[in-house]
Write a structure and sequence with these properties.
The chain is an alpha/beta fold. The chain is built from ten helices and nine strands. Its EC number is 3.1.2.12.
Length: 279
């Protein structure tokens, strides 16, 4: 891997909040990611949480808004936040907010003009972790989490590659994208018209068919305007029962889809992951 460049480095809770650029062979473009290294990183390799963000987001939303660094520093857990899609002038895009740059959906696209570069599943599950383990003080114990589109991505990665993670969680995930407008639009564009192929990227369908040995936690806000049409958490709960999966589904009255919701419960998610990362 070439072209690794640090572009920001800030002291936070005794640790380092950093931002990096690198050349991605998987995506064929320059990619940015953020890392929080707690103080314990000065003394050895640490377990880490991979966070996947949602539509229109970048690597900065979680690091700026979730307030996760304080407890991560206390627990000795590193945080890794990739971007949500390939970026750049030569990268395919769409004027809509829910397709193209900022909306990679953590799938491997099979349809033009997306096929060559929109391979976010391979990027977040293989290329980026390999780079991180080579260049940062991170050990082999990784958890995965995300919000909205990133919650979908985190669940799909956990179900498809359970050997890579110790636990998974999501805030407001798109649980059944094959039946949700956001998912159907993205899957049609990226994967094509064969809906049978979409099942490989639908957390509810995957969980019902394959199950998942990992502990899973999902939190949704009952005042989320997208809850019924786009998120469909009941489908994931039913799939967990069929797949005999260990899913904790928490519903919170009054909370919406925003990062205010994430910030309100991020400590609970970090402690959930810490029980498995630090075991």
């Amino acid at each position: 891997m070439t072209g690794l460049e640090k572009i920001a480095d800030n002291l936070a809770f005794g640790g380092r909040q950093q931002q990096w650029l690198h050349d991605s062979a998987t995506l064929g473009c320059r990619m940015r990611f953020s890392v929080f290294l707690p103080p314990a990183a000065e003394h050895g390799k640490l377990p880490w949480l991979l966070w996947l963000s949602g539509l229109t987001c970048s690597d900065e939303n979680f690091s700026h808004k979730a307030g996760a660094q304080r407890l991560a520093a206390e627990l000795g857990i590193a945080l890794v936040m990739p971007d949500t899609s390939p970026r750049g002038e030569g990268v395919a895009d769409d004027p809509a907010y829910d397709l193209g740059q900022g909306a990679g959906f953590y799938v491997n696209a099979e349809r033009e003009p997306w096929r060559g570069q929109y391979r976010m599943y391979d990027y977040v599950s293989q290329e980026l972790p390999a780079l991180l383990r080579r260049h940062f003080p991170l050990n082999g114990r990784c958890a995965i989490a995300g919000h909205s589109m990133g919650g979908h991505g985190a669940l799909v990665c956990a179900i498809r590659r359970p050997q890579d993670y110790v636990s998974a969680s999501a805030f407001s995930p798109i649980c059944q994208p094959t039946q949700a407008p956001w998912g159907r639009k993205a899957f049609s564009a990226y994967l094509g018209d064969d809906e049978a192929a979409w099942a490989e990227w639908d957390a509810s369908l995957l969980l019902a068919e394959r199950g998942c040995p990992l502990p899973l936690r999902v939190d949704v806000g009952l005042a989320d305007a997208f809850l019924a049409e786009q998120l469909r958490p009941d489908a994931l709960q039913q799939a967990a029962r069929r797949g005999d999966a260990r899913l904790e589904l928490h519903r919170h009255a009054g909370y919406d889809h925003s990062y205010y919701f994430v910030a309100s419960f991020i400590d609970e998610h970090l402690r959930f992951h810490a029980r498995h990362l630090l075991a």
